[in-house]
Amino acid sequence: MNQKLKYISRIKDEFDTVISGVNGVIMRGDGIVDEAVDTLIKLYQSGKKIMLASNSGMRVKDLYYTLKHKNVPMNIFYAMITAGEIAHFYLKNNRIGETYYSLSGNASSVIAGLDYKPADSIVMADFIVAETESSGVNLAEMMSVLEQALHLHLPLLCVGNNTSLITDAGVVESVGAVAEKYALMGGQVIPFGKPDVRIAAYLAESVPGFMAKRCLVVGDGMATDMRMGNSFGTKTLFLTEGVHQLDVNIEQRLSDLSESYGLNIDYYMEKFIW
Predict the structure, then answer these.
(1) What are the helix and strand counts (H, E) for the chain?
(2) Average pLDDT, the chain
(3) What is the topology classification, in CATH, of domain 89-192?
(4) pLDDT tens string 213-223
(5) In terms of CATH architecture, what is 27-84+195-265?
(6) Do domains 27-84+195-265 and 89-192 have the same CATH topology?
(7) What is the Cα–Cα distance from 46 to 40, expressed in whole angstroms?
(8) Is the model's pLDDT at 235 over the cut of 80?
(9) Antiparallel, parallel or unpaired: β 77-82 and 170-173
C-alpha cells in the first residue's frame, strides 16, 4: 500500500494496540525523540495499548530504568520485551558452555546473574556474545576476532539483529552486520530479537482479545520491524528518517525497498508525530 501519512492521528481508529521499536522511533542513540514520545502519550490517552519490542542488548528492567531516567512516562507502556531479555532466558535454560567472550569488551548485561564466566582471551571461550549497543560497532576492528572464533568453531550469540542503527551522528553498523559476516564466513550464529515473530506473539498474549489486524507495528527497520509485522499479520508503519535514510524521492525508493525485501508496508511517515 505504501500510503503516506503526515499525522498518526489520522488513522488512530484503525488499531487498538501498538508495537513500537525503540531505537529509530523513540530513541536515537542515547537521546530521546521528544515528538515520538509525545505521540505515544497521545495514543495512550486515546485508549491504545502501547508495547515496546526492542532489539537492544539490555534486559527489560534496564530498558525500563533507562527510559524512566530520560523522563519517559513509563505508565503508558502495557508490556515490553528486549532481545537482551530473550537471550538471557535462553542462556539460563540452555547450557552452551562455561565461558564467553564479549565482542564489545565490556561485561555482558545479557549474562549478568548467570553462571557463565568471562574469558580474557577468545581461545578460552566456549561462545562469543555480540550485544546491540546504542553506539553501534566497528566490524572491521572485529574481523581478527571473528577469524579466530571461526577457527575455534565458536557459536556467536547475536543479541539484536539490526545490521545498522540510527544515531544523532548518522547511521552506524550494529551487531546484525557482525552476525551476517560471521555466517558468510561459515560460522554458527544464534540470533535473538526482531524479526522473530515469537516476539510479537509474546506481547500479544498479554492483551485480552488481541487481534493482529487491529495492531500497528511501528519501526524504521525493513528486515526487523516491518518483517515481524508482516509475518504476524499486523498493520505496519515505516519511519523513513531511520536507518534506511529515505530523504529524497521517498515514494519510489520505499517502493523499491519494500519490493526488494518482499514486504508490504501499509503506511509511512518521515517522523512519528501525532
Answers:
(1) 8, 16
(2) 94
(3) Rossmann fold (3.40.50)
(4) 999 999 999 99
(5) 3-Layer(aba) Sandwich (3.40)
(6) yes
(7) 10
(8) yes
(9) unpaired
